[in-house]
Amino acid sequence: MTVNGPIKPEQVGMALAHEHILVDFSGADVYDPASWNQEEVVNALLPYLQELKQLGFNTFFEFTPAFLGRDPQILKQLSGKSGLNIVTNTGYYGAVDNKYLPSTAFDATAEDLAQIWIDEYLHGIQGTGIKPGFMKISVNPGPLSDLHKKLVRAAAMTHLETGLTIASHTGPAEPAFEQIEVLKEQGVHPSAFIWVHAQNEQDQQNYVEAASLGAWVSLDGIQQDNVQEYTQRLQWMKQNGHLDKVLISQDAGWYEPGKPWNGLIRKYSDISNYLIPKLTTMGFTSTEIRQLIEINPAQAYAISIRKI
Fold it and tell me: For the whole model, what pTM was predicted?
């Protein structure tokens, strides 16, 4: 589900699985979308997306959640001007000790939260008619708090109604596996779950275990200066037969309200310019590279209810 409506998985093409256009770190209690000018953001980011399109990419999964700068109207404009499919999200972000959760989320039930997210999928975000194509939630890096378990349960309920994939900013393995267990308790198969920022887990055997369960392992934050680290992790997953459960991204961008943007936006081209050539020299085939940047994103974000 893109900001312009649904597409078939075979229309996804080469995709970036986790990037950002605009991020506002002010916090939910002072969050104000009037703090940025939509036209200015579009003009600032369009050249970077046009470059991405010229590199052969076709789809862009935009990971900025509600109360952190999600602006579906900006994404729709950029999609039209760049020719890229852009996918936005629903859900709430609990990491950073709940700084980005609206006050209503603390007392709301999981059912209440799920209904908000389901309504966005059914009717569009905040009256725009633009629908989310996945869920973005997040948790702190340690054991799950009761509040964060509630976010995961709400995500499970939303998935079972909509088929939206659950991408969770997580990091270490402990909360990743806890989330998988909560989802299973709710009847959701691990294949509906993306373990975001799995690169922050140092024991790579945990990647294999999560993939064996069916979960997606997302290695985010690829840059020119860390390509060696990521190629090693990808080689590990290849050797263990789980390259088909890996997502990769740069977690790049972005426009930040109130700060000078010129020269500070990180390009979306490091995977194309640095990672793929390195993988090729390491013996990755064109089929394996296509698996990573085309087949896996199309399958991971396909709208499909996945029950145990």
Answer: 0.97
